[in-house]
């Protein structure tokens, strides 16, 4: 039995596919940039940041973490030619609300000690100050040992209440 979520998924996709005309797009992003942003359900990156289909890579994870996104960022830059990064964290982010110790304790409670053992070195990458976290991630992408100095990197905060962005760095 399909869940309501699965039914919606399938029905909406059938509607989408029936009107789809963009099958000719090339693999590399046409505008050669990437956005790292949070997985937060309140952010619609394509609409909020003017990204048309085929233009850019959008990498999403909990907290818009540059470190967590690193594998995808490198694939984007080295294999698919992107030359600019916009890192966008946001107000009200869940990653401001817990510590690594909190996450570990939740994991142990819900999945057991073996689960906790399996991810002993995992950093959940929470942060305490939004602007500092943006600056730190931009520094990591711009000046870290894996950085390409020729790639432009800027850092932003998206306000989930107004829909506006503010540049931090
Ligand atoms: Zn978030």
Description:
- The structure is a single chain.
- The protein has 169 residues and is α/β, with parallel strands linked by helices.
- The chain has a single domain (31-167), classed as Beta-carbonic Anhydrase, Chain A (3-Layer(aba) Sandwich).
- It contains six helices and five strands; from the N terminus they run αβαβαβαααββ.
- Strand 4 and strand 5 (165-167) form a beta hairpin.
- The relative contact order is 0.16.
- The protein binds zinc ion.
- Zinc ion (ZN) binds at residues 38, 40, 63, 90, 93-95.
- Please estimate the helix content: 25-40%
The tally of strands reads 5
Numbering strands along the chain, what is their spatial order in the largest sheet? 2-1-3-4-5
Instruction: Specify the number of helices.
Output: 6
* Cα shape: globular
Please tell me the total number of domains: 1
Identify the CATH homologous superfamily.
Carbonic anhydrase
Distance between the termini: 49 Å
CATH class: Alpha Beta
Structure, briefly:
The protein has helices at residues 4-18, 45-49, 70-79, 100-111, 113-118, 130-143, and strands at residues 33-38, 56-61, 84-90, 152-158, 165-167. By secondary structure, it is α/β, with parallel strands linked by helices.
